Each structure stands twice: as C-alpha cells, then as structure tokens.
Amino acid sequence: MSKLLSKITVTSIAIASVLGGAYYLSSTPGTNNTVSVSNNSVTAPEAAQATLVSTWDKETEPNYAGTRDITVYRSPTCGCCGVWLEHAQKHGFKIEDVKTEEMETLKQKYNVPPELASCHTTIIDGYVMEGHIPVDDIKRFLTEKPENFAGLAVPGMPLGSPGMEAGDMKQPFQVLAFNKEGKVEVFQEHQNY
Amino acid sequence: MTKINRRQFLALSGAGAGSFILASCTRGQIGRASSSSTPDSPRLYQSQNGLLEVDLEASEQAVNLGGKEAYLLAYNGQVPAPRLEAKPGDKVRLHFTNNLEQPTNIHYHGLHIPITGNADNVFLKIEPGKKLTYEFQIPANHPAGTFWYHPHLHGLVAEQLFAGLAGLFIVRGELDEIPEVKAAKEEFLVLQDFALDDDGRPMGSRHMSLMMGREGDIITVNGRVNPNFSLAGEGLLRWRILNASPSRFYRLALENHPFHLIATDGGSLNEPVEVNELLLTPGQRAEVLIKGNQQSGEYRLLNLPYDRGSMGMMGGGMMGRGMMGGSDRNAPTALATVNYESSVESLSLPTKLASIVALSAPQAEKTFELNHGMTPGVGMAFLINGEYYQGEDRIHTQVKLNTVEDWELINTGVMDHPFHVHGNAFQVISRDGQPESLLAWRDTVLVKRGETVRIRIPFNDFTGKTVYHCHVLDHEDLGMMGNLMIES
Fold it and tell me: Which chain B residue is nearest to residue A176, measuring alpha carbons?
C-alpha cells in the first residue's frame, strides 16, 4: 500500500476563504487514494479487542541497505515513545535510547519546525526523524536521500500511527519532509491502513 | 514529492478545509438540516413563579458563523444554546427532543442537583428521535452562579460540543443583588471554537488532533467572530464568561483594563480580586467586573498564547492534511472588542461579596494519577490511575454522603488536564504543595503537566453514581474518566 501511495501527488493548493485568504492543501480528485469512510465517529477503544496487532510491523522496504543505528531522544514520561521504539526494533533497528527533559531545546538544536513537532526525536545517518514515522518511510527516505532535506516528521500524535495504535481508530496522516529553511513537502500519505 | 513552501505551510493551520477527502469523510455524519426549529425562538428562558419550563430540541441547523454558512448542532436552532435562568428553590422541567442522528443526553455542569433519575444523570442515553423530560429542583440554598448545559454521552462528547451544543444555565441569587454588581452592565460571553470543512460542516473526528484535543480555527463569542460590546455610561461591565470549547484554553486579557474577578465556577468569591489575565480551561467559568475608566476608544479582548503541552507542539489542530494549528500559537488574537465614548464616572467596586468558609479537615483521602499511555489489548488511551473508562458498570471511586475528602490530582503526563467533578463543587487546597491563597468554589481545576493539585470536596445532599473526568473532552472520550459512587 505504501508503494502505491508514494506515487500520489498533491497538485493543487486551494485557497480557503477563512482568515485572510490562508492556503489549504488539497488533493486532486481522481487519484487513487479515494477514501471511503462509513463511520466518522471515533469512540473509545473497545475492551473486546484483546490483541494489538500493528499494521506497521510488516516490512515494505525489504531491500533497505542503510544504517540501522538510531538515537532516540524522548521525555522520561512519554508513554507512546517507547512503543514506537518497539516498532523500530521489530524492523531490526538498534536504538540508543536517551531520556531527557530538554526536548524543546533539542528540537531547536536539530531545526525541527515547531509546527511539525511531535514527542520523540530520532537521529539517523545525520537526518532528523520527528515523531511517529513508519520505519519503512524512514528507510525509503534514506535510500532516496532527496536533496536539501533535513529529515521527516509526523506532526502531533495521530491515533493509529506506529506507537499510537488505539484499537480500530486509524487517523489519516502525512509524513512530511522538511529542510533547515522550513520548506516542507509531503513525503508520504497514509489515508487507509 | 509535493512542494509546499514555508509560508503556505504555516498558513495551513489557519485555514478552513479545502480537501475533497475531508468533505467526503464528514458528509453524512450529521445529516440534513432540520427545519423544525426556528432561529427566532427565544434566546432566554427565565423561571416564572418558581418553575422553569422549556421545550428544548437538539438538531442540525444552518448557522452564520463569521460570515460563513455552517451546519452545526444546536439546541432550539441556536449556537450557543438559549440561556436558561432560574433561582434557588425553583423547579426545572425541560422537555428534550433529540433530533440528532446520534444518541445524546444533557449534563447540567456545575449545578448541585440530583445525579440520578431524570436530572444530572450522564448515564441516560436518548436515542435519535426520542424525547425525555428532565425534571429537578434547584436546592433553596444553591449558590448563584454561571453554570451551563451540554451533552455528556461518553464517546461523543467532544464531537457534539465541537458541533455547537452548549448553553448557559444561570442561577440568580445573592450575588446579583449586591448593589455594585446589580448596577453593572451584565454581558454573557460563551467562548466556542469550530473547524469547518468545505461544506460548512464540523470537521470530522478522524481529521482532528484527538491526542491533544481538537481545536478549531474559528473562535466565536456568543456565536459571533469578534463581536462588539459597548459600555455606554454605566461605567462598570460585568462579564460572565464560559469556556464551552471542547479543548481550547483561553488566556484572556482586556487591553488597558484589569479584570476584577468576582466569581469562579461555583459562584462568588469573598471579595473582588484584581487580575490582569484570566486563564479559562474548557468547562471553567469566571465572572469579572471591568471599570470603564480609560480614554474613550476601542479595547480588544485578547486571547494570549498558552502552551498546554505537549513538547512545544501544535495547538491541537487538524491531522492528516498537514494541519498543526501552529502558526497562530504565539500571536494574541482579538476575541471581542469593547468600546465606550467617553471616560465615564466609574462606579465603585463591591468590597464584600460572600462569606466562603474553608472546608474542615477531610475524613478520607484519595489519589488520582492522570496520564495517557499504551494499555494492553487496547493501545493508546487516556488513563486515571492507569485505567481507561469502560462504561458505567465499574465503580472506580466510592465515597460517603455527608463527608469531606481530599483528592490529590497528580498529572504525570506531558499535557495539561483540567479535572472536573460532577455534582459537588470543591475548594483547591494546594498546588505542588503551595497552599492556595484564593478561597473559591470550583468544579473544574487545571492540573498542569507535572503538577500535583490537592482539592477538598464535600459530598452533600445527593447519593448515586456520577463521574469525574478530564474536561479536554477528547481525553474524556478516549478514557480519562471514572465512575464515582456516593453512598448514603
């Protein structure tokens, strides 16, 4: 699915009328990521779901040949960061786990745009990986190494993303690439997963 | 890859929706607008001869929101809902019809009334198309104050409030009779925020930052964007402010004017307290007096930045489309404007408002740890003492009627959690071990990340089962709630 989605381009910027003509990113109808969602409500997780199987454990980038050594910075009280670490471990990554109270300073040091911030920050091969990014997206990024990008980010903490699994709640999210000047591009979309 | 430049990207957060995906996701969630409610129905219902009797209908309604047509959920076609006013001792009979496409119910936030039966019972579930008559009596010794009503069906609370369902429930009493307060020009400010898709419907839950708690880019006061309040000659304004947003905090300041705080959630303070800023978490209310003693002109009511966690990120905007709500985080925004023509002779402030007595020593103590985390078999959930809310059967906390307890609220997480207890107001004893100097009645208290707040709460008059929870309503819907049994 990820391969398919990686071909998607977002081609139009719609102008929204709200608040001084701000821009809104819009996908073009007709691409292959049409979403059909029958129930838009999100309710609390059901106790009946006894097992937690993550869709993110399956490897989609089997030919990745880059480094698997990562350093993860996280707050000692972060509940979800540890689960993302497990996700990375399942993909064979070796983790240096650094717990620090100085996350904000650290994100500034690594030029993470504040509006892209999430909880934990990962350093791999000189790149910055912010938040709950599917590890296979990191592998593809490091394989392609697109020019002038400092890293990837999944802003916030979308429910359903790796380390944020919550029953059958799966919020769509984007993996964004950013550079030091604050340029941001969509690297990957996860609509249905 | 797709290019978004910095400026466009930053602007995203302030925009309305533009995506066909969003539109298709949210369509059908609420359904067609009901034509049965009239927008001209009364905006205020007051009790007559000891009885407040109201027909109240919840339905979808086309509403003008800052010049944009929005399809919100409304009580009697109004956003915010009609204001209800009663006096201590009055009977309330509220004939409710649910014309939503979802089940719902009504919580009377802050009122000290029965928590069982057809009163402030959050376990009632009123299915679409069904009716229920709420009936209760406001105790004769009930404090005057600014209370409110809104849906409280677990799992749908944030969504239904974010669609507009909320209104004031005012209890008139002693505070209103204090001459200086009575002479002031009274205004009500209901603060709400909304995020709309291209069709003008509330953005669906899938696309909102549920972890932080959803916030919208359209902020309204009484359903209007930046309304004007005039102060013509009276000299003293009395603002009664409600934060009816599901997640957004408001840090309020009025240009060139301090606030004279006279009441909190549970009614009046002992005397006015001068403050330059007022932080209102979701669910909280405050009453302030404002002296119109500056030069004539316009003064903006500002919403100042507030970081409620976590990790210095996002304002809790929309997900999935690159929405972070980050760009306006550091800029104050004007919520309303006050103007007056000339410096009027300012009325004097009241000196004595009430006589709140500090609660005596507690008979029992309990601890509540607030955090989110991964829960085996469930995944990410919001937790109180490590448990997420699974319905009304399990009793998490038992207390005895006519006792006083100290509850220690410990936030071990990375986000702020405003803690709300239904049915009984409490006093804050200390924050991080520092004794609380302001003696006040509250029903919602902010527990900042890393903070420990001790509250003292008396359980009086009513037995039965009710709840306590985080009033960031997405956190509540995602499990941060517990059942409280008050036993005789």
Answer: B322
List the single best residue of A31, A36, A42, A164 to mutate versus B (max B Cβ within 10 A).
A42
Which residue segments constitute the domains of chain B, with CATH numbers given?
31-172 (2.60.40.420), 179-340 (2.60.40.420), 364-487 (2.60.40.420)
pLDDT, one tens digit per residue, over B71-115 is 999 999 999 999 999 999 999 999 999 999 999 999 999 999 999
Peptide bond into B282 cis (omega under 30): no
* Interchain contact B9–A (C-beta under 8 A): yes
Lowest mean pLDDT: which of B237-251, B310-324, B426-440?
A: B310-324
Predicted complex ipTM: 0.77
pTM: 0.85
In a domain, A58, yes or no: no
**What separation, in Å, do the N-terminal and C-terminal C-alpha atoms of chain A show?**
8
B314 contacts in chain A (CB < 8 Å): 115, 117, 155-156
Q: How many CB pairs under 8 A join A and B?
A: 245
Q: Give yes or no for a contact between B212 and B316, defined as CB atoms under 8 angstroms apart.
A: yes
With contact defined as beta carbons under 8 Å apart, do B123 and B467 qualify? no
Query: Which tens digit of pLDDT belongs to each residue from B355-387?
Result: 999 999 999 999 999 999 888 878 899 999 999
| Number of domains present in the structure of chain A | 2
For residues A79 and A150, membership in a common domain is answered with yes
Residue among B57, B20, B17 at smallest CA distance from B39: B57
User: B102 to each of A37, B127, B255, B291, B294, how far by Cα in Å?
Assistant: 17, 7, 42, 45, 49
